[in-house]
Each structure stands twice: as structure tokens, then as C-alpha cells.
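User: Quick sanity check before I run a bigger batch. Here is a single chain. Can you write out its predicted 3D structure?
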Amino acid sequence: MFTAVLAIALKEIKDNFRNRWFLFIGLMLTCLSLLITFAGSAVSGELVVADLPLLMTSLSSMCVYILPLTAILLSYDSFIGEEESGTLLLLLSYPVTRLHIILGKLLGHLWVFSCTIGLAFFLTAILVWTLTVFPIQEVVVAFIHLILSSILLTVCFVLLGYIVSLLVVEKAKAIAVLLFLWVMIVLVYDLVLLTFMVADLQGFSNAIFQVLILLNPSDLFRAIMSSVVLPDILPQGDVVQHRGGNSMLSIAQMPIAGLYSGLLLWVSFLLIVGQQIFSRKRL
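Assistant: Done. Predicted structure follows.
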């Protein structure tokens, strides 16, 4: 089983190198990360590196929009594209199962994103530690959380891309559906949740907000980074007494292991759904 999965993963990695996806994603993440870190303060009229908590907040805000979008652009034609070209049917003629195929594709995409995300933020972390006076331990911990949570968030949207790619009959429909889902999950859901958090609505407790966060992988990613940096940047006094401040403070106090478990559950759930759809798909 492992040999078959590894062979399919290597094919996906080679395809991404051939299509320049690896280079494109790596350069984009590195450039954005460095620009946010060292040029993000330009709007205020000076070039200084923000405090570490504010810096991590800015980087995580960039990741929550860019990474899901790149994930769906990379995975939208993983199955429908090979089905249209006939390579999927040819692949199934070999002694591999459909589980082998989906695991192999996921392993290949996981390697691509892990390398690009890891290299981009590792370079940023090195430069931040070298050019600032931030304690190295705080820099290492913050960037490790950023890298791990970013990879898990990306895997969720890669698997979502697989599911849509297995359900549609044309590549154009796949990318259209996935872009719609990206808008709804990353933008609309978050704006609605933020509206509820800052509004004085009766019956919406912090526990309800936490459940709503668990229902969205992008908000889980935000919650993980908030739990890392928010206690250091939340103002005291009147702002914390605001309903939104209380909600965000409760998010920051959620066990970080539980938040990571929530993202892992999303990965497991989407993988199971994708495998069930693939096993029932007729080619």
C-alpha cells in the first residue's frame, strides 16, 4: 500500500514542479511574508517591524485568505482533470485502490505546501530574529504555530477541492464552485460571525461563539493564532468589557490542543467524505 501511495505522491510532486506551481506558491508566500513583516508599517510613514504579536496577527490574516485560495487552485482539477484526459481510468487499471489514489494525491500536495509554507516562514523567522530584538524563544514558538496551523488549514481546502472535483463533470464548474465556497467560508462566514461577536445579541454566549468557530476551519486557524498572540495585545479595561472583547478573550483562552484537534477532525472528516464519494463514483 505504501509503495502505491508513494508512487502517486511522487507523480503529483513532479506535476507541480513541471507546472511551476511549487515555484509560484513559494515565491508568492515568501514575498508577501517579507513585505508584511518589513514594509507593513509603510502606511504609517515609517519602516519598522511591528511588535511580534501584531506581526503574527498580520501574517495570519494574510494566510487565512491566500492559502485556501492557492489550495483550491491547486486541487480543483485533481480528479475531474484526470477523468477528462483519461488518465484516471488508466490509473485505476493498475493494482491500486481508490484509497491509494486519494492518499497519494494528498501526500503529494501536502509535501508541496509543507515545503513552500515552511521555507517562506522559516526565512521570515530567521530575518525577524536577526534584525530585531525579539526573544528567540517567542519567535520560534510563534512561527511554529503559524507553520503548523497554516499547513492544516491548507490541507482542509485541498480535500475540499478533491470533493468538488469528484462531484462535478467539468473543470470550469469545479473552479466556480470552489471559488464560491472560498467566499462563503473565508469571507462571508467570518463577517457574519464578527457581526454577532460585536453585536449585543441576547442568547449568544461565548460557548455558542466557540462552537461556531469549530464549524469553520478558517476560523479555527484564526483562533489558534489568537490563542498564541491575543493575550499579549488585548487592551485592558473598557475594551475587554466589550462583548466582542470578551468573546475574543474566551477564544484566546481555549485550549490550543483542542483547536488543533478541531482542525485535525476537519481533515479526517473531509478525507472520509472524499473517499466515500470516490468509492461510489462511476467512471
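The radius of gyration is 20 Å.

User: Great, the batch can go ahead then.
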